[in-house]
Amino acid sequence: KRCLQHGEWELASACVPQLVNSVGGLSEELQDIIKAIICHPYRLKWGPIGSPHKLAWFWLQVLEKWTKERIPPHIKQELEFLLLLEELGSEGLTETHLQELHEAFLALRSEERRDDAAVKSSIQTLLEKKKPRLAQTLAHFFQDQSCTEGRALQHTFIQHLMKKLGKPEGRHEWVEEIYSVLSLLPWCSPRSDGQLETLCETLWAARDGPLQEERILGSLLRPRCDTLLSVYCSTALRLQRDHLLRNAPETRADLPEAEKLTLSLCCHKDRPSTWKTIFFECLNSGKHFLEQVLITALDLIKHEEFSQLRRLLQQEFQPLSRLLLLLGWTHCQSLTSAQVLLSILHKDQASANDTVLQEFCHLLTSQLGILEWCEANNPGIPEEALLAQLHTLENHSALYVLHSLTPLARYEEHRIIELLQLPSLPATVETGGLGVERNVVLFQGFCAMKYAVYALCVNLHKYSNCSECESLQHPHPSEAEMDQNKTSSEGCSLTFQHYLSECQLYLETVPAMFRLELLENIFSLLFLSTSDFVQQQQTESNTETDAHSEHESD
Questions:
Q1: Assigned domain for 443 exists
Q2: Considering the domain boundaries, does residue 536 fall inside one?
Q3: Do 142 and 189 form a contact (C-beta atoms < 8 A)?
Q4: In principle, which of 110, 147, 178, 497 could form an S-S bond with 188, CB 3.0–4.6 Å?
């Protein structure tokens, strides 16, 4: 007690650990004395401490350290506020302002409605004095549970930031002040706020100037609350999206908004910013970015926007080129567009560890060359038939395409073999050579069957007593091989021998297993009889007669 009476507070606090565990009621009496000092410090000798509030705070720390006794929260909160007022007074706030703040605090505790002009004015003064932490501490005391008061004080911070951002400076002190105020910006409302969104828009606009977006995001982080960060990110995503859509490459077709955005992102030069936007866009849309790139590319192929397709795949997405060629092949509307697509997505692209896709694209290139040859050598092919073959090129051999679109048997064999042996692209020896060899062998087998059928038909014609047929529709041997003075029967015999020898020559050029299969087919033709041909001729004759009768009846 003597230490307390003489104001020797440090010495008195040193006695507390010994007295607090004493028996006989001394401990309870000690705690009552300390509580009295905390609640009523004004008449004591507080000079060495600095103020009665600091004296009360000193003994509050002693009480909580050495005893389990706790002061009621409202007393502790009021003591903290009074200590804050002392510090505010040292920063130049007048006694009138301090008195108004104290009254506002008491009114808030008694749940009375008071004008918060004094609080706003004090916060604004502290912010202008570059004391954002004191301003944030003062605002913390006036944030009630409904957050109505806190939202108004938050607007004071926002208005200060907007004023500062309206006159940007390049000085380091100005930049750090913005970050400091932003990191202490009070927030308690989960609802969207117009002023906050305006602030986020201004911050986003300044991110490439004196401010850095990483520092902005770090200043908006709050413990157990991501509202401020979410508001900024959603605002930044909206603004970035609008900016990209405004600057998207022009296309002849009207693409959907998502595809315009993807095209603009893939053509944007600032790759770090682009990938950040892609990440947030994927989170927002729920789609993987590769899926969106493929959808956009396929739509460009449909509308034949090949220049924009090239730009879309010029950077990180170049490895998707050959995959896109296969996916978008059926969208080609002509042989010309297919050739352009092959050039962009295959011929002009470097290898991307996609050997299987390269081989498939080589096949498409070769098959497209066959299709173009058919169009050039048989101009009467309908456009629908060409497109049907174009869209199923990967399913059929070159021989099938030739047989479907041209009178293949009428062409000279050497022309077709030269066509099949034309190189398509610089392919590997294994893949390119095998493909060409396969096509040539199939055609040689076709020629062997063709001459076998020709020989059979010539032999049948020998006994048909045909007086009208002076020259066969099929190619004849040369004049040096056939004497003009021989009889028609002898001419047929020579033609038969010629076709048979041609068949034999082609059989000798094909592999043994394939030759065996061809011989089986040829031997099966020996079981045909004259009635088989007569029956076919009668059927054709009956069909013509029925058609003529129907025409007359009409």
A1: yes
A2: yes
A3: no
A4: 147
Phi, psi of 312, rounded to the nearest 5 degrees: -60, -35
Non-local (6+) Cβ contacts of 119 within 8 A are 101, 104, 138, 139, 142, 153
Residue 400 within any structural domain of the chain: no
- 177-210: string of b/e by CB count within 10 Å (b at 16+)? bbbebbbbbbbbeeeebeebeebbebbbebbeee
Find tokens 């010495």 and name the residue.
11
84 inside domain: no
Q: pLDDT truncated to tens, each residue of the chain (554 aa)? A: 566 555 566 666 776 766 666 665 556 777 777 777 777 766 665 556 667 777 777 777 777 777 777 778 888 888 888 888 888 888 878 888 888 888 888 887 776 666 678 888 888 888 988 899 998 888 888 876 455 556 778 888 999 999 999 888 778 889 999 999 999 988 766 565 688 899 999 999 998 888 998 999 999 988 877 888 888 988 988 898 888 888 888 888 888 888 898 888 888 888 888 888 888 888 878 888 899 999 999 999 999 999 999 999 888 889 999 999 999 999 999 999 999 999 999 988 888 888 889 888 888 998 999 999 999 998 889 999 999 999 998 888 888 999 999 998 889 999 999 998 876 544 444 455 677 888 899 999 999 999 999 888 887 766 665 555 544 444 555 554 444 444 455 556 788 889 999 999 999 999 999 999 999 999 988 887 777 666 555 555 555 555 444 444 44
Q: What CA–CA distance (Å, rounded) separates 138 from 153? A: 10
Structural domain boundaries enclosing 551: 434-554
CA distance linking residue 413 with residue 331, whole number of Å: 34
pTM over 0.70: no
Q: How many domains does the chain have?
A: 1
Token pair, residue 324, equals: 């896109």
CA 77 to chain centre: 52
CA distance 216 to 271: 20
